[in-house]
Write the structure tokens for this entry.
Amino acid sequence: MSIQCIRGVKDILPPEIEIWQTIEHKAKSLLEQFGFKEIRLPLLERTELFHRSIGEETDIVSKEMYTFEDRGGEKITLRPEATASVVRAYLQHNLYTLDPIQKLYTIGPMFRRERPQKGRYRQFYQINAEVFGIDSPLIDAQIIFMLMYFFKNLSLTNVQLHINSLGCRECRPQFYHALNTYLSQFNADDLCEHCNRRRTTNPLRVLDCKVEKCRQAMKDVPSILEFLCPDCVSHFQLVQTTLANQGIDFTINNQLVRGLDYYTRTTFEIQTSHLGAQNAIAGGGRYDGLIQLLGGPDIPAIGFAIGVDRLIELYMQHHESPKPYVDMFIIALDAPSKKMAYTLCCDLCIKGIQVEMDYSARSLKSLMKRADKLNAHFVMIMGEQELANNSVILRNMNTKEQFVLSTNGIVDHLLTQFFITPH
RNA sequence: GUGAGUGUAGCUCAGCUGGCAGAGCGUCAGGUUGUGGUCCUGGUGGCCGAGGGUUCAAGCCCCUUCACUCACCCCA
């Protein structure tokens, strides 16, 4: 058995790669239409960055990160998400002194060591966007609008938007207090093993536990939405009315907590019922305290990530991979013809025509079969007879029409008569 | 980390109560001079995931291990 790739990672091969290119291209165009600029970031960061931003008690940090010591003894981690790195770069380069408002996006792989399953890989890809320096709920609504437009534009209509508010540093402590009071009424038997630990370490996470007895126990749990301070209420209200005015359907889900500690106020997730258990294809939220937490000024921010692997899986349920083709396949039957074919092949390729030729000495028949396999739109045939007349045969593979063309000025002739030239 | 299912040709899969390793698709060649798709013929292709055990005999039974898939968990 030859060497295989490691568990939970995969190769993306042609022709599927074309779908990835299409999706990424569409995402970039849309993000740039909305004023986002690309930022390219390292995949490696100091481990400390994620401990401080994502939170020590989260699943990501406590058991899913690829962390190692490099040869200099430094603790390095393969990034499990992008937001922390974007914030790090924003602070490291003092981008806020240039303009506190920055809209940045990045596309690339993330790494989490979880058990792989459908839609969940150890190396997975995200399209990530962040807005720094705007605290208005209008920007919350706008990035959600942009996301929903993106999915609609890809003809992905079977997705649902869920939104919630997690409050701010003013009102969240009061909810925490109420939540702790509520949780304290239960014995260890009433909650699952994880939640017994969470009730002290991260009580918010008990809310969206899916274990049956925990859901029973959480039946009458106070809703975070009842504890929001007036500012948070009006913020959340404006997000909702703005979305509603734009005709965007959403569900308020007060159990939507999300797995990273840094979220405040608006959080959202876009889900689908067509991907099995891993139903979130995009998620994000506001993180007004994170920049300060990482040593920067008190600047609000909001962002989201799209799971590209899942998005593409969903997309492919309704779209075929494009069938590869070449514009022309050249069959040259002897050595002098091959020499000429080679030059012609290069000349046409640099003009933007996809041309393949054959480099072997196989029969015309087998090469015609190959032309068919390559889905060649045209086949050029040249051999002893043609070369003697300074001509070649051009066959249209769909109509079966054949033309005899002079070799004089053939590149221009082909470009103007047979191929739609770019520009 | 836990559970269930599956590992046989490049791909999709048959293979009976243990008895010579199979099909379809793909690939390559041919079906009389230099013309494709359909059709016909032939060739190629395998450490039956790996290691051990039981047996005269193991793809099949037992143990171990690895991988994949799905689910739990978590998230994108």
Observations:
- DSSP finds 16 helices and 16 strands in chain A.
- The radius of gyration of chain A is 29 Å.
